[in-house]
Specification:
- The chain has about 120 residues and is an alpha+beta fold.
- The protein has one domain: GTP Cyclohydrolase I, domain 2 (2-Layer Sandwich), CATH 3.30.1130.
- The chain is about 30% helix and about 35% strand.
- The protein starts with a strand and ends with a strand.
């Protein structure tokens, strides 16, 4: 398995249990690890044979517009499902870091999901 990693992509989403916390977007950091076989991309030097990580980063930056979540657990699962559906890696690991608790650098939630077999 080969991997592409987007580390600490800054996004601004509305997330939090209290209504007041969701009133305005807050800074989150997303780390995405995409598992796939990119031998074909390496052999052909063709971006069409891999996942365009710039396109994915732009999709994730815009993805939270007009949406909100109470739990980062819900957010992280929905991001993983969207990536599997739209970008089709063999596996995806998504970590969301939230910078909300005093005396901590961050709180994070991480999930790993495989592509569903058909």
């Amino acid at each position: 398995m080969d991997f592409i990693t987007l580390a600490d992509l800054e996004v601004w989403y509305r997330v939090g249990v209290p209504d007041a916390e969701r009133e305005k977007p807050q800074r989150l950091a997303l780390t995405i690890e995409l598992g796939l076989d990119f031998r074909a991309a390496a052999a052909t030097d063709d971006i069409a044979a891999t996942i365009n990580y710039f396109d994915l980063s732009q999709r994730l930056i815009a993805w939270g517009q007009g949406r909100s979540w109470r739990l980062i657990e819900t957010l992280v699962v929905e991001v993983a499902e969207m990536i599997l559906r739209e970008y089709r890696p063999s596996t995806v690991t998504v970590e969301v870091r939230k910078f909300i608790l005093p005396k901590t650098r961050y709180v994070s939630v991480r999930v790993t999901r495989p592509m569903a077999r058909t």
